[in-house]
Amino acid sequence: MKEYKETQHSIHYKSLSDLSFYSAGYEKCKPSYSYGPKYRNYQLIHFVLSGEGTLHINEQTFNLKQGDAFLIPSGKISYYKASATNPWCYTWISFLGINSQNYIYQMMKKTNDIYIIHNLDITKYKTLIDEIINLQENNVIHYLKANSLLFLILAQLFEDINLSENQMQTKSLANDLKFYFDVNYAEKLILKDIAKKFGIHPNYLTRIFHEKFHLSPKQYIMQLKLKKARSLLITTELSISIIASSLGFDDQLAFSRTFKKEFSISPSMYRKYYAEK
Fold this sequence. Notes:
- By secondary structure, the chain is an alpha+beta fold.
- The chain has twelve helices and ten strands.
- A hairpin with a 2-residue loop joins β5 (52-57) and β6.
C-alpha cells in the first residue's frame, strides 16, 4: 500500500475550511482482502483500477469492477472486500470541510446506485492521485499542492457525470427529502428532526413529499426498511434481532409485528419458505 496523509493541519482545522485534502493512497489487494467495518468523519472516494470487489454500506451491497468509483460519505459505516478470484486494485482520495458533504452528496444524487459512479476513465484519476502520493513532505507547499489536485479531481468528476452549477442550485425539496431517506432509512428517523434540518414545518414536509411521490414519508421509509429486510432474510444468516436493530426498529417484536402486518407472514417463516424453494 502507498499513502500520503497530510498531518501539518489538524482535522478540526480542515473541517472548518471550505474544502480540504486529508489523504490519498493506492492498494493492490490480495484475494479476499477486506477493510472495515469502518466509520469515518471525512468524505472518501475510491477508483477501481482493475479487478473486482464488493462494497457494503448503509445495509446495501454493490459489486464493482474496473472503471467504477465508490463514494463513502462521512458518518456512514462501510465494509469492502476484494474478489477471491479477481481481486481489485484501487486508488483513493479523502477530504473534509464545510462544503465537502454537499459536494459528495450532489455526486450521489446524480448516480443510479447512489454510492457508485460507473464507466469512468480511471487513468486520469490515477495520474492525479499519483501526483499526491508522490509528495514526500508534510509542509504548507505540499498541502497546497494536494489541495489543488483535489480540486482538479472533483472538477473532473463533476464534468464526467455532467453535474452543472445550475443543477446544484436548482433543487427540488421533495427530491432532496427522498434522497435523504434513501441514504438514511436504516436509522431511527424522526420527521420533526428531519423537518428542522431542512428548515420547514413537519406538515409541509409530509405534504410536498406526498404530492410528488403519492406516499407519506413514513410509508416510503417503511417500504425501504421492509424491502431491505426481505433481502437480508433471504441472502444472509443474520439473526432476526440483528436485522431489526440494523434497520432502526426498536426491537425484534416491533419488527416482526410490522413485517407480518405487511406480508401476512412472520420474518422467520418468510426465511424458511425461501430457504426451502
